[in-house]
Amino acid sequence: MCNLYSLTKSQDAIRQLVRALTDGTWTDSTGNMPPLPGIFPDYPAPIVRNRTEGRALAMARWGMPSPASVLVGKKSDPGVTNVRNVESAHWRRWLGPENRCVVPFTSFAEHEVLPDGTRPPVWFAFDEDRPLACFAGIWTRWTSVRKVREGETTNDLFGFLTTEPNAVVAPIHAKAMPVILTTEQEIETWLTAPAEDALKLQRPMDGLKIVARGVKEDKV
């Protein structure tokens, strides 16, 4: 599963791709956002979501709430980064437009299992310039214990959908790849359409290539 990605484009580039001014309102609570060449699970990252006051760019913590069945006997819930089974009742509650988001990225990594047992990252993007695209995501506000040392906290959380891998990703990670949106229409459909239409976007995306290997951060 995808547990590492990068975002090295600006807030303005995100706004232009998502066309956040469709209703004349755009809010940005991310502050002076620096390049993020390595985004890991349970760390904050930007998402774009619908709010009553308009479309918003905000920071959220990567990892949706885990199903209760897997938390029995555990003291914390680090979250679920990737969502595949959208038929599950656990995930269906967050598939409406009010809980959908897009997750901007410029490249993502899967770990390649080598004969010596090491698992170096392999980075995928649409080309060497790492053009901006988005994962199809979901988000929620949730109170839980993410880390025992933190105690109970309330956070905005997100994860993104996965699907079967394409021909480029499959030799590295045969089980899945993120659901990727590249056009304004795909992004608009994911953010606004009824679930049955939006979920048609849960399919492999072609056009990717390997742009880096063996590094924990993907820098252009």
Compact summary:
The protein has 220 residues and is mostly beta strands.
Characterize the structure shown.
- With 220 residues, this protein is mainly beta.
- It is 11% helix and 36% strand.
- Strands 3-1-8-9-14 form a five-stranded antiparallel β-sheet, with no helix packed on it.
- Strand 10 (133-145) and strand 11 form a beta hairpin.
- The protein is globular.
- 33% of the residues are buried.
Shape: globular
Strand order of the largest sheet: 3-1-8-9-14
Tell me the radius of gyration: 17 Å
What percentage of residues falls in helices of 4 or more residues? 10-25%
Q: Beta-strand level of the residues, as a percent range?
A: 35-45%
Determine the mean pLDDT.
93
Secondary structure: elements and pairs:
Elements: E1 5-7, H1 11-18, E2 26-28, E3 36-39, E4 44-51, E5 54-62, E6 82-83, H2 89-92, E7 100-105, E8 107-111, E9 121-125, E10 133-145, E11 152-163, E12 177-178, E13 180-181, H3 184-192, H4 195-198, E14 209-213
Parallel strand pairs: 2-5, 5-11, 6-11
Antiparallel strand pairs: 1-3, 1-8, 4-5, 4-7, 7-10, 8-9, 9-14, 10-11, 10-13, 11-12
